[in-house]
Write a structure and sequence with these properties.
29% strand, globular, BirA Bifunctional Protein, domain 2, binds adenosine-5'-triphosphate, binds magnesium ion, YbaK protein, Rossmann fold, alpha+beta
C-alpha cells in the first residue's frame, strides 16, 4: 500500500470528547470516526487492525474445533419471549417492529438464535459435541457509551456457543476454550490475566474473564503474589475466620449520636475504629426488604449479595423505605428489633463481639451489641469487597490489585437455554436429554482499544506486531527525489515478496511530519530511507517499542532485515 493513495486522515489535535488514551489515539491515527454516540465507522487502518485480531481469533478457534458461522443481527422477539429475556434484558436491548408490527430486536448476544438453530438440526448424541462461533456486529443500547471502542453501542464481537451431551463433555469443551483464549491473547502480545468471574444475569455456574492489564481499566482484579489465584473484585471471596470470638460483650447501651449519620462520624464521636461500627444497609430484593450487615470499614459487594439472595433486582432502599422499615432516618437503622425478616450479616462480623449499630431511632446508636445475643441474624455470608490487605482466599499469601479491561468472558451455561428452548437430543440409551451449553465472548474492538491502553507513549500507539494494521512502514525522507523514491520502491517490493504487510510513505511531506505520523500510528517497525543512507548503502531501521535504531545494509538486506524483524517480535515475547 502506498500512503500517498491511502485513506489515512491523521489528526494533530486530540478530540475533545475523548477521555481515555485509546479513544484519542484511535481517532488521531485515523482508525475510527464517530457517527453518533457509541457508533463508529472503521476506516481502512482501523479495519485492518480489527481484521488482524479477528484472524488470530479464527485460527485459534478453528484449531479448537470451533466452527465459524454467521447469524442474523435482527432477531425475532418470539425466541426472546421463550427464554424470558424479552422482559429481563432491559433497555440495553434495542427493540424494533417490522411493517407487520411484529417485534424484533438487534442482537446483543446470540444464545437464543444459536439454540434455535441447534435444536432444529441436532437430535442425536452422535452429533454432539458441537461448538460454533461467529464474528459479528452486536448492538447494546449502553446507558453511557464511552471511551471509544471500549464501550460502544454497536461493536464487533466474537461469540461462540458449545453444546455437549453431558457435564463431563461440557467441562472438556470449557477447558479447550480456556486454552484457545490463552493462546489468542498470548499471540496478540498482550499482558493479560484470566480471572474467576461472576456469571451475572446470563446464568451458569462457572466463568472466567480475560483481562488486559492497564491502569485505565474499569475492572479491578485481585491477584495472589504466590499462588495462581486471580479474581475479579466482584467475585473474589473474602477469607474470614469462621470461629466466633470469645471476648465478652458488656450490656447493651443506648447512646445519643446527634446528627451522626455516617460511620465515620459515629466512630469519631465514640472514639472507636470505623471497623467497630456495623453498617446496616437496607435493600429491596425483588421487592422484599432485606438488611445486610457489614463492618463499617468495608464496602458491600452488591453482586455477592444478589447472588446469595438469588434475586434479579437489588435496589438500595429509598429514604421513604428506610423510614418505613426501620422507623428511623437514613443513617440510624440497626439490626436489633428491626422488623425485617431477612437479616444477613457478613462473615467478618463473626470474628468479634461488641459492636456499635444504629438504634432505629433518630440520633441514637446502640453500643455493646453482640449479634448472637441481641439480634436474630438469619445467616452469615461473604458480602464485602476484598481489600488489598486481605489474605489470598486460597493460600493466605498477600494479594495485589490490578486494573484490567475485560476483553473476553467464558461461561458454562448449563441447561438454561436448552431447557427454555427445548434443545434436546437422544442419548445412546434412547433417552431424551437436554444439551449442556457454554458460551464464550471476545470484544474484538475493545481488544484493539485495550492493546492501545496497554501499549502507547506520548508520541502515539505502540502496536504489537501481530495486530498492527501494517507491520512495517517505509518512510521515504524526500519523496520528490526520484532516486530515493526509486530505491524505496525497490525495498518495498522486496519486503512485499516476504509476505509482510508493508506501507510505503511516499507522500511529498516534510520528513518530521512523516516521522510523527509513523510514531502516532505505531507501526512496530520503521525503515527510513534517504539520500544520505543510500550514499552509504544503508537504510535506517527503528523499533517503535524500544526506540532502538540500527542501520541495515542495502546489500545483504534480506538477512539483516529478517534478523531485525525477529528481534522486534521477540521483544514482544512473540
Ligand atoms: P461489560 O461488563 O464490560 O459490559 P459484558 O459482561 O456485558 O461486559 P459480555 O456479554 O460477556 O460482556 O460480552 C463479551 C465481550 O464483549 C466482553 O468481554 C467485552 O470484551 C465485549 N463487550 C461487551 N460490551 C461491550 C461494549 N459495550 N462495547 C465494546 N465491547 C463490549
Ligand atoms: Mg455489559
Amino acid at each position: 500500500m502506498r500512503l500517498s493513495k491511502y485513506f489515512l486522515p491523521t489528526l494533530k489535535e486530540n478530540p475533545t470528547e475523548a477521555e481515555v488514551v485509546s479513544h484519542r489515539l484511535l481517532v488521531r491515527s485515523g482508525m475510527i470516526r464517530k457517527l453518533t454516540s457509541g457508533i463508529y465507522t472503521y476506516l481502512p487502518l482501523g479495519l485492518r487492525g480489527i481484521n488482524k485480531t479477528a484472524d488470530i481469533i479464527r485460527e485459534e478457534l478453528n484449531r479448537a474445533n470451533c466452527m465459524e458461522v454467521l447469524m442474523p443481527m435482527v432477531q425475532p422477539a418470539d425466541l426472546w419471549r421463550q427464554t424470558g429475556r424479552w422482559n429481563e434484558y432491559g433497555k440495553e436491548l434495542l427493540r424494533l417492529k417490522d411493517r407487520h408490527s411484529r417485534d424484533y430486536c438487534l442482537g446483543p448476544t446470540h444464545e437464543e438464535v444459536i439454540t434455535d438453530l441447534v435444536r432444529r438440526e441436532v437430535g442425536s448424541y452422535r452429533q454432539l459435541p458441537l461448538n460454533l462461533y461467529q464474528i459479528q456486529t452486536k448492538f447494546r443500547d449502553e446507558i453511557r457509551p464511552r471511551f471509544g471502542l471500549m464501550r460502544c453501542r454497536e461493536f464487533i464481537m466474537k461469540d461462540a456457543y458449545s453444546f455437549d451431551r453431558d457435564e463431563a463433555g461440557a467441562e472438556d469443551t470449557y477447558k479447550g476454550m480456556f486454552k484457545a483464549y490463552t493462546r489468542i491473547f498470548q499471540r496478540l502480545g498482550l499482558d493479560f490475566r484470566s480471572v474467576q468471574a461472576d456469571s451475572g444475569a446470563i446464568g451458569g455456574s462457572f466463568s472466567h474473564e480475560f483481562m488486559v492489564l492497564a491502569d485505565t481499566g474499569e475492572d479491578t482484579i485481585a491477584v495472589c503474589t504466590k499462588c495462581d489465584f486471580a479474581a475479579n473484585l466482584e467475585k473474589a471471596p473474602v477469607h474470614a475466620p469462621r470461629a466466633a470470638s470469645v471476648e465478652d460483650c458488656p450490656d447493651l447501651e443506648m447512646v445519643e449520636t446527634p446528627g451522626m449519620h455516617t460511620v465515620q462520624k459515629v466512630a469519631d464521636f465514640l472514639q472507636i475504629a470505623p471497623g467497630k461500627v456495623i453498617k446496616t444497609l437496607l435493600f429491596a430484593a425483588d421487592g422484599e426488604p432485606v438488611a445486610a450487615l457489614i463492618p463499617g470499614d468495608r464496602e458491600l459487594n452488591e453482586v455477592k449479595l444478589k447472588n446469595h439472595l438469588r434475586v434479579t433486582e437489588l435496589d438500595l432502599a429509598t429514604p421513604e423505605q428506610v423510614r418505613e422499615w426501620s422507623g428511623a432516618e437514613v443513617g440510624f437503622a440497626g439490626p436489633k428489633d428491626l422488623e425485617i425478616r431477612t437479616i444477613i450479616a457478613d462473615n467478618l462480623l463473626l470474628k468479634e463481639k461488641d459492636w456499635v449499630t444504629g438504634a432505629n431511632q433518630k440520633d441514637m446508636h446502640l453500643r455493646h451489641v453482640d449479634l448472637e445475643r441481641d439480634v436474630s441474624v438469619r445467616e452469615y455470608a461473604d458480602l464485602v469487597n476484598i481489600v488489598e490487605t486481605d489474605p489470598c482466599p486460597e493460600c493466605d499469601a498477600d494479594i495485589r490489585f490490578h486494573k484490567g479491561i475485560e476483553v473476553g468472558h467464558i461461561f458454562k451455561l448449563g441447561t438454561k437455554y436448552s431447557r427454555a428452548l427445548e434443545a434436546l437430543f437422544l442419548d445412546d440409551q434412547g433417552n431424551e436429554q437436554e444439551m449442556i451449553m457454554g458460551c464464550y465472548g471476545i470484544g474484538v474492538g475493545r481488544l484493539l482499544a485495550a492493546a492501545i491502553e496497554q501499549n502507547h507513549d506520548e508520541s502515539g500507539i505502540i502496536f504489537p506486531p501481530s495486530i498492527s494494521p501494517f507491520e512495517l512502514v517505509i518512510i521515504v525522507v524526500n519523496a520528490k527525489d526520484q532516486h530515493v523514491l526509486g530505491k524505496a520502491e525497490e525495498l518495498y517490493a522486496r519486503i512485499q515478496e516476504l509476505d509482510i504487510d508493508v506501507l510505503l510513505d511516499d507522500r511529498e511531506e516534510r520528513p518530521g511530519f512523516k516521522f510523527k505520523d509513523a510514531d502516532l500510528v505505531g507501526y512496530p517497525m520503521q525503515l527510513i530511507i534517504g539520500a544520505r543512507g543510500i550514499e552509504k548503502n544503508v537504510v535506517e531501521a527503528k523499533d517503535r517499542k524500544t526506540g532502538e535504531r540500527i542501520e541495515l545494509p542495502l546489500e545483504e538486506f534480506r538477512a539483516a532485515f529478517e534478523d531485525f524483524r525477529s528481534r522486534v517480535w521477540q521483544g514482544w515475547g512473540l
